[in-house]
Amino acid sequence: MIINKVLNKFSKISKPKSKFLIKFITILLYFSGKANIKNISRHGDIAPRTAYRQIQNDVPFNEINYEIYGVADILKHELVAIIDCTFLKKSGKCTENLGSFYSSELEKITKGLEASVIAIGDLVDKTAYFLDSELSPGSKYTRERIAKIEALDVQRTRSVEQLDGYKKIEITTTQTKSYVHTTCPQCHREIAYTTCQYCDEIESKISFYLEQLKKNIHLLKQMTKYIVADGFYAKHKFIDGCITLGLDVITKLRVDANLKYLYEGQQLGRGAPKKYDGKFNPKDLSRFEKMNDLDLKMDDEKAELYSKIMYSPQFQRQLKIVVVSKNGKCSQILCSTDLTLSARKIFEIYALRFQIEYIFRDGKSHMGLGDAQVRKASSLNFQNNACLTALNLLKIEHYLDPDHRDKALSIYSKKQQKYNEMFIQTILLNLGENPELYKNQSWYIELKNFGSISA
Question: What is the pTM of this model?
């Protein structure tokens, strides 16, 4: 197996730790059910007490995954970095990093954990591989009663029922002294203090994401110079931080984004040269360059690309803007800090970003992501990283097989085949037979594929 080759040569991990990792990840490849420590220990030669002790130690999973890419020749492909977060359900009160995070499944902020994941997108195989995961810091944002600010001469309108005829009328009164709310100029939420608690929280999260990128930058720079993220990461602090780290950002902007055309005419008269020439209007794309030679489809509809270099007052820099138009209407606005990238390349790279969502889906559905029944952040990080590293091994095994490379990948089928093979080998070893002698026989192959399905 690839994991054996990598860990046996990995000098940063001791041999006892390496043996435990090989056993732990191998069990995750075929294990089914809730992937907590007690259930995993029942499927292999691992004592629960040993497992609880081992998972509390930090393991450089990012470097292990990088070595796995090297063994599988993935580093020869054209790669981009992807960053995103996923919500993990967690109950209790004593779990570290527990807080209130947005759940896309429930479509609301709820109690649990959030894992920030960095993945590597492969533009050749059109898939993504896991690199590193870390729990986001616990959120302190709660829906508390908002304090009110004193104001004078406030007019209030209220509806009352008139006694004669039972008609509703509106009465406007002026109160000499009352209390009103104030709103944040950025998020337009009602705020209780001079600074917005919600915006401050986002700033602290962006700092955490940048710190995670900084820890992995020595590996990312060897693979790519681009990082792609969804619209949440389109913040001035995040983009400036990535530029400082040497990474160009490709992300998505709001349809009503504040953008300015660069002045391209002749400078006349005295004074400072004219820089800008009007604001961007998503309904008018006449000043954009249309990509006529492209045949692109998005959501089974024909899409057209328009590109132009514009200035963003929000990010205080020039950006390569790509407008995706469907049926003559502006559908998406993509941007890149690398002004030399073509419109098609920006579109392809951002489309690859969605592959990280498949990592979240397969990790939660099949690999035990979020099933750890532990409280320490170090143990939770170990479990999350181990589950997604095992997912990497299953995906790489599929793409390295020339007979199955062009077929759809089913993680369920891969795990079922691994379990069947483990069960067959266990029976043969107990009968005193060598499993290697039977691997090419028809009955062995038939039993190995028993219960597997196509994707």
Answer: 0.83
